[in-house]
Amino acid sequence: MGSQQGPHLHVEGDSLVHRLPAHTKLVGLLAFVLGVVALPSSAHLARLAMLALAVLVVAATRVPWRHVVRRMVVEVPFVVFAIVLPFVATGPRRALGPVTVSASGLEAALTLLVTATVSVLTAIAFAVTTSTRDLVRALQHLRVPDRLVQILAFMVRYLGVVTAQSQRMKVARESRAFEARTVRSWPVIASSAGALFVRSYERGERVHLAMMSRGYSGRLPVIEPLRATAGQWTLALTPAVCAVAAGAAVLVSGWGS
Amino acid sequence: MHVPDGFFDAPTSVGTAVVAVAGVAVALRRSSRELDERTAPLAGLVAVFIFAAQLLNFPVGAGTSGHLLGGALAAILVGPWTATLCMTVVLTVQSLLFADGGVTALGTNITLMAIVGVWVGWGVFVLLRRLAGPSRPALVAPLAGVAAFVSVPATALAFTLLYAVGGRADIPLDALATAMVGWHSLIGLGEAAITTLAVGTVLATRPDLVHGARGLASARPLEIRAVNA
Which spans are transmembrane here (chain A) (predicted)? Predict the structure, then answer.
């Protein structure tokens, strides 16, 4: 799949993370991030250890870092929020260089930044090593309701097709000297959105008819079920176990805070 | 705006995940009435449309631009149940394939955008349509705009309420609510304009596709005839 199929993150590869079955990776990702989110807010050292672990996981995918860093821009709005937080939060103040800020706000900002970075890194590690087809199979395997999986399967299948159509409409607009600069361009873009809806919906009708004529009965058959060995489960769940162990260590002995 | 991991504490993430699962389960059962057995391919394509529409940039001026959230638009075009499913799938794909929006915050994001955003929009739309009288097809697009306008600050308000329950820092809540609702009312104005114009375009070409205008225009449904050889 990869680039011709649309704006997916997936990068072909043969690393350790690539070879893990998708459903183990998905469960491992969820458990790890939940473990990191559940760390007590004072456990900054433990959280930094989890950040190092996330960096290790990304390194293990052997995907170029510039590809990873480019995706991390999704975090930017929350970095801004985190920078503002210490100044707007209330509670006891503390000095930070030349300014005084809210102590709880500063702590919350650090917590937010590190947790969000850990999760974005791990999610990128999942996204770059899992093809859309494997994601669909993983969700099927994990007993996500069939209709939801099917909607998702059709969505990822036509993602590239519809975004390419949208791109062609953009080229068509611009080749007619359209320039989106002010609010006055809204009617044009909005009517493009309307046209895109009609085209997507009609494509859905055609896809449905084509599938009916090929014997579609409302279910997607599972052709190659996913299988995982105990070793693969262990590997996929290692980060989550580390996060839970770190959390337990903090609670029991105050380590890492 | 997608909530990342770590923004809310773990109990809030789990709680909103339960709400999301319940909402999506009901939507799965009810959506079959809106799109019958064609649900999966059509809803999939509608989900792609929402995804692609969110990528369209609307210039605000001075070099900045905004984009559509699409909850109310989807509800009016395909009906609220299907819209809930489509938004859920869009948020899931954004979270798992694009690392946009936290994986443990997925329940929160679904609750805010696929449930609150869609249903406030739909509720306002249905209420206004009933107030406006039964057969006024010309009003569908403007009413859709009002619904879209209300849905954006309503989502922001729901976000503020969640922050009051599970936020990590002590931000004065009235200030946060004022800032969030105020800022999102501005965003809502853009959402309203775009939703009105987009619904208007669809009404002009394929009025039968607009769920919110059902019964107002003469629809000709697609017929599938089985042929026994």
Answer: 45-65, 72-89, 109-128, 233-255
**Would strands B57-61 and A93-96 be described as parallel, antiparallel, or unpaired?**
unpaired
In this structure, is residue B52 part of a structural domain?
Answer: yes
Is the backbone of residue B104 left (phi > 0), alpha (psi -120 to 50) or beta?
alpha
Q: Are B106 and B91 in contact (CB under 8 A)?
A: yes
What domain range is A10 assigned to? 2-136+227-253
**Does B92 map to a domain?**
yes
Distance from CA of B214 to the nearest CA of A (A): 16
Structure confidence by residue, pLDDT tens digits, A179-193: 877 778 888 888 899
Residue A85 in contact with partner chain B when CB distance is under 8 A: yes
Total domains in the fold of chain A:
2
Comparing CB atoms, the residue among B1, B45, B68 nearest residue A201 is: B45
Q: What is the identity of the amino acid at A90? A: T
Q: For B209-229, write each residue's pLDDT tens digit.
A: 888 887 765 555 677 777 776
Among the ranges given (A183-187, A238-242, B156-160), the one the predictor scored with the smallest mean pLDDT:
A183-187
This complex has an ipTM of: 0.88
Neighboring chain B residues of A166 at a CB cutoff of 8 Å = 52, 55-56
Domain residues for B178? 10-213
Q: Which residues of A touch B87 (CB under 8 A)?
A: none
By Cβ distance, the residue of B6, B175, B194 closest to A193 is B194
Q: Which of A115, A118, A197 would best serve as a mutation to test chain B binding (most B beta carbons within 10 A)?
A: A197
Q: Give chain B's domain count.
A: 1
- Taking the Cβ of residue A83 and every Cβ of chain B, the question of whether any pair is shorter than 8 Å is answered with no
Kindly determine whether residue B170 and residue A185, on different chains, have CB atoms separated by under 8 Å: no
Query: Is A46 in the same domain as A101?
Result: yes
- Helix, strand, or coil (residue B9): coil
Residues A206 and A236 in one domain: no
A158:B45 CB<8 A: yes
pLDDT band (50, 70, 90) for residue B179:
confident
Pair (A26, A99) in one structural domain:
yes
**CB–CB of B211/B34 below 8 Å?**
yes
In this prediction the pTM is: 0.89
Both tokens assigned to B109: 């994001």
